C-alpha cells in the first residue's frame, strides 16, 4: 500500500479504513505531499481517527467525502471531465496563474533577450509579476474601511497569498462578524486596530502638522473620527507603508488627507493617478485619471513621467501616447 503514497496522488479509500487513513496522514506529516484523500461510502470519519490525524490535516492535506462506494467512485473519476469551458473565466485564470508559478521566468527572458520586437505583457503574467514583487517587498498596508465586506475579503486574500500585511481599521467585533458572514478567516498576516483605542495618540501630531492652518485639539479629534485621516497619520509616522481606500470613500476624500498631511514627493508639483487596464492580450497604464481635469503642458509632461515611473518599477520599457484633453487630438508619440 505504501508504494501508492506518492506526491500529488489522489488516494481513494473507504472512510471506514482507519489503517489507510492513518498511513496517509503519517506520510503527509513526513513530507509526502499527497494530492488529496477522497473518502467513499458516505461514512463519518471516526472521531478518534480524526483527532489522531489533526496534525496531518494542519499541513494542508485536503480531505473530500462522497456517498458512492470506492468502486463507483473510481469509475466516476475515470470519466471525469477535465476540460475547462471557454466561458469559465475564473477557472481559466486559476489555471494560468498555477502554470505561471512553475514557469522558469529567467529562461523565458533569455528567449527574447536579443529580440527587438515590441514585448507585450499578458494580464496573468502582469498579476503574477506584481504579486511576486509585493511578496519580496513585504510591506504593511492600512485599510481605513476595515469593516467593509469587500475590503475584509481582499485583505484575507492578500494575507493568504503573502502579498502584504493588512491593517484593518475598525471595531474588532464588527470586523470579525463581517469576516464570518463572508466565510473569511482572518489569520496571520492581518492586523485589526480599533480606532477608538489609538485615535487619541495621533491628536498632538495632527495639531503640529496643521498648526499653520489654526488646528486645535478639539478639531483634530473631530477630524480623526475619519479613518482615512487616521490611516494617513499612520502612514506619515512610517507605521505603515501604504494606504488603500475608496470602497466607500470618494476619490477626493481619499486624496485630501495625504495632500494636507504628507504633501507631494520631492520634485513633484501635483498629484496624479494611474489605472492599470488589463486588456485581453496586454496591459496599458492610463494617467492622469480624473485628478487634474485641465492640466497645463508642464503638468501633462509631469503626468507622463509619473506613468513611466510606474512602468519602470515593473521593469517594462515605456512607449507613451500623449494626448491633449482640449482639443481631443494627439499631441505627440514618444518612446522613453
Automatic annotation (TrEMBL):
- Note the InterPro entries from the entry: DRTGG, P_AcTrfase_dom1, P_AcTrfase_dom2, Phos_Acetyltrans/Butyryltrans, PTA_PTB, Ser_kin/Pase_Hpr-like_N_sf
Where does the DRTGG domain lie? 1-78
**In what residue span(s) does the Phosphate acetyl/butaryl transferase domain sit?**
126-302
Could you tell me which SUPFAM superfamilies the record lists for this protein?
HprK N-terminal domain-like, Isocitrate/Isopropylmalate dehydrogenase-like
Domain of life assignment: Bacteria
What keyword terms does UniProt attach to this protein?
Acyltransferase, Transferase
Enzyme nomenclature, EC number: 2.3.1.8
Pfam families linked to this entry: DRTGG (PF07085), PTA_PTB (PF01515)
Q: What Gene3D superfamilies does this protein map onto?
A: 3.40.50.10950, HprK N-terminal domain-like, Isocitrate/Isopropylmalate dehydrogenase-like
- A single MF term (Gene Ontology): phosphate acetyltransferase activity
Q: Record's PANTHER family?
A: PHOSPHATE ACETYLTRANSFERASE
* Subunit record text: Homohexamer.
Q: What is this protein called?
A: Phosphate acetyltransferase
Amino acid at each position: 500500500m505504501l508504494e501508492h503514497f506518492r506526491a500529488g496522488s489522489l488516494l481513494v479509500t473507504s472512510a471506514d479504513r482507519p489503517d489507510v487513513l492513518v498511513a496517509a496522514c503519517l506520510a503527509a506529516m513526513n513530507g509526502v505531499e499527497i494530492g488529496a484523500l477522497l473518502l467513499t461510502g458516505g461514512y463519518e470519519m471516526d472521531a478518534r481517527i480524526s483527532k489522531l490525524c489533526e496534525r496531518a490535516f494542519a499541513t494542508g492535506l485536503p480531505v473530500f467525502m462522497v456517498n458512492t462506494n470506492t468502486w463507483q467512485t473510481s469509475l466516476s473519476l475515470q470519466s471525469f471531465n477535465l476540460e475547462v469551458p471557454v466561458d469559465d473565466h475564473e477557472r481559466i485564470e486559476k489555471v494560468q496563474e498555477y502554470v505561471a508559478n512553475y514557469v522558469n521566468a529567467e529562461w523565458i527572458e533569455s528567449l527574447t533577450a536579443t529580440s527587438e520586437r515590441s514585448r507585450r505583457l499578458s494580464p496573468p503574467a502582469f498579476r503574477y509579476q506584481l504579486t511576486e514583487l509585493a511578496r519580496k517587498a513585504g510591506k504593511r498596508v492600512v485599510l481605513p474601511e476595515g469593516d467593509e465586506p469587500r475590503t475584509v475579503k481582499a485583505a484575507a486574500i492578500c494575507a493568504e497569498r503573502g502579498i502584504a500585511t493588512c491593517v484593518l481599521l475598525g471595531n474588532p467585533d464588527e470586523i470579525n462578524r463581517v469576516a464570518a458572514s463572508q466565510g473569511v478567516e482572518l489569520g496571520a498576516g492581518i492586523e485589526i486596530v480599533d480606532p477608538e483605542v489609538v485615535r487619541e495618540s495621533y491628536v498632538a501630531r495632527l495639531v503640529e502638522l496643521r498648526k499653520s492652518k489654526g488646528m486645535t485639539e478639539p478639531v483634530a479629534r473631530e477630524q480623526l473620527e475619519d479613518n482615512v485621516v487616521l490611516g494617513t497619520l499612520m502612514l506619515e509616522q512610517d507605521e505603515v507603508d501604504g494606504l488603500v481606500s475608496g470602497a466607500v470613500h470618494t476619490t477626493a476624500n481619499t486624496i485630501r488627507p495625504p495632500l494636507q498631511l504628507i504633501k507631494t514627493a520631492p520634485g513633484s508639483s501635483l498629484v496624479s493617478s494611474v489605472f492599470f487596464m488589463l486588456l485581453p492580450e496586454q496591459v496599458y497604464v492610463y494617467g492622469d485619471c480624473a485628478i487634474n481635469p485641465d492640466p497645463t503642458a508642464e503638468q501633462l509632461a509631469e503626468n507622463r513621467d509619473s506613468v513611466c515611473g510606474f512602468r519602470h518599477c515593473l521593469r517594462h520599457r515605456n512607449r507613451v501616447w500623449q494626448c491633449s484633453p482640449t482639443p481631443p487630438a494627439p499631441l505627440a508619440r514618444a518612446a522613453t
